[in-house]
Amino acid sequence: MATESNGAPAGAPAPQDAKTSSASAPAKTPAAAPAAAANPEKLTPAQLKAKAKAEKAARRAKVIETKAAVAAATPAKEAGKGKGKQDGQPPQSKQHRGSMSGRRPSIGGPLIEKEKDARSGIPECFSHVPMAKRVQLSQTHKDVDPAVLVAGQQMAAFAIKDSISRLEATLLAFKKVIESYETPKGNSLSRHLVPHVLNPQIEYLTECRPMCFAMGNAIRLLKTKINSFDINDPEDETKEELLEWIDTMINERIKLAEYLIARNAARLIEEGEKVLTYGRHRLVEKTLLKAKEIGKTFDVTIIDDPYERGGQTLAKTLRQAGINVLYSPNLGGLRPKVAGATNVILGGEAIFANGSLNAASGTADVAMAGQNAGAKVTVLCETINFDRERVSVDALTYNEIDPERNTAECFRLLYDNTQDKYISGVVTEFESGGGNSPAQAILALLRMREDPQIA
C-alpha cells in the first residue's frame, strides 16, 4: 500500500540511528551496572557519569522513535484522504471535519477560531468612538459586587438607556457595595474603599458601556465625600453617612430635580400654544403632563426617532391624558411641521461648558429647524448632567456607536451635538427667574449650585 511504500524509506534512517545510538551508549555501562547493583549507595564519579549518559541516550532514542512514527503515519493519512468509502471506513462528519480543520493551523495559527470583532467594520477615523459590549461574567474582576454585575449587564443590553436611569442604578448598586464593605485590619475606610473596592466596580461599568456624564459627576462627588473622612472616624458612622449621602443624591439631584424641571417648564407653555418635541424624553413627557394638569390647553407634534420609536409611547400617553397629538414617524417633512410650532421642547443628555447640547441623534436637526423657523427652542436638563470642564463643537468627540445597528456597510451614532446658538434657553431645577437660563450660563449655574449665596 501507499502507506508502506511512502513511509518506510522516510522513516528507515531514523530508527536505525536510534538503535545505533541506544546500542552504543549503553555499551559503556555493563561494568558500572554490577557495581551499582552490589553497592547502590556508593557510586564512583565515573559510574554516576556513565549512568546519566545512558539515561540521556535512552531519552534521545525514544524521541527519535516517536518522530519517526509520526513521519511514517502522516503520509498514510494524506494518501487515505477522500478514500474512506473505498477502504470501508465511514466518511467523516461535518463536526469531525470542523474539529480537524481547527487543529491543522496549530503550527502557525490559533487552535480555535476567534469570534468576529464587532468593531471590524468601523472606519479607522471613528476608531476612537466607544461602543457598549456585554462582558462575560468569567472575565470580570473577582471583586465586582453582584449588584454592580447586574447593573452593568443591563446597561450593556440597553435595558437601562438614559443617563439619569443609569445614574440611579449605579448609585443603588454602590449603596449595596458600601453596606457589605468591611475595612481590613490596618487600613482606614477613607483610604481603602476607593482604590480597592469602588475602582473595580467603576472599571467594570465603564467596560460594559461608556460612562455617561451624570455618572462621572456623581462618582467624582462620591470619591470627594469619601476622601473627606478622617482616618480615625468610626467605620459604622462613616458608612451610615455615606449611605445617607447617596439617598440625598438620589432624592435631590434626580427625583426633586425632575419635579422642579417639569414644573418650571410647564409654566413656560402658553395657552393655545403649539408644542413640538422629538422622540421621547422623560422630562419632556412629565412637563407636558404637568402643563395639562394645571389646566393649560395646547397641541403637541411628535417627530419620532425612526430607530427607537419612543415617540409612539409618548403619543399614546399624551392622548390618554386628553392632549391633542400629531405624530410623525421620522424626520421627513421636518420644515413644514416645525413652521407650525411656536415652542420646541427637547430633552438633553448633557450640556458642555460652551453651552452645546449632547442629545439623541436627530435632536440637532429639530433644534436648527425650530430656530430657523422663529420658534423657541427650550432644552430640559438636570445640573448633574452639566460638564464644566469640557467643550464640544461636533458629534465625533463625545459619542457612542450603536451596537445594535453596526454592520460592515454602515453604523449609527447614538448622540449628536447642538450648538448653543440654536438653543433659546435651558430649564434646570433652579428657580432663577422662570427657570429658563441661557445655555452659555452653565458655569454660573454650577457656581450657584455649589454656593447658593451667590444667587
Question: What do these coordinates show?
Answer:
This protein is an alpha/beta fold and 455 residues long. It has 3 domains: 1-72; 137-255, Up-down Bundle (Four Helix Bundle (Hemerythrin (Met), subunit A)), CATH 1.20.120; 269-454, Translation initiation factor eif-2b, domain 2 (Rossmann fold, 3-Layer(aba) Sandwich). Helices cover 48% and strands 11% of the residues. The protein contains 15 helices and 12 strands. The strands form 3 sheets. A 7-stranded mixed sheet has the order 3-2-1-4-7-11-12. The chain has a 3-stranded antiparallel sheet with strand order 5-6-10, covered by helices on one side. Strands 8-9 form a two-stranded antiparallel sheet. Strand 8 and strand 9 (411-413) form a beta hairpin. The longest helix has 35 residues, at 45-79. The N and C termini lie far apart (99 Å). 28% of the residues are buried. Mean pLDDT is 81; it is low at 1-40 and 74-114.
Structure summary:
This protein is an alpha/beta fold. Helices cover 48% and strands 11% of the residues.
Give me the Rg, rounded. Answer: 36 Å
CATH superfamily of the largest domain: Translation initiation factor eif-2b, domain 2
Which descriptor suits the 3D outline? elongated
* Strand line-up of the largest beta sheet: 3-2-1-4-7-11-12
Q: In the residues, how many domains can be counted?
A: 3
Task: Output mean pLDDT.
Answer: 81
The number of helical runs is 15
Alpha-beta classification: alpha/beta
What is the H-and-E element order? HHHHHHHHHHEHEHEHEEEHEEEEEEH
**What's the count of strands?**
12
Level-1 CATH class name of the largest domain? Alpha Beta
Residue share in helix = 40-55%
Give the biggest beta sheet: 7 strands, mixed
CATH architecture of the largest domain: 3-Layer(aba) Sandwich
> In whole angstroms, how far apart are the ends?
99 Å
Which range does the strand content fall in? 5-15%
List low-pLDDT spans.
1-40, 74-114
CATH fold name of the largest domain, please?
A: Rossmann fold
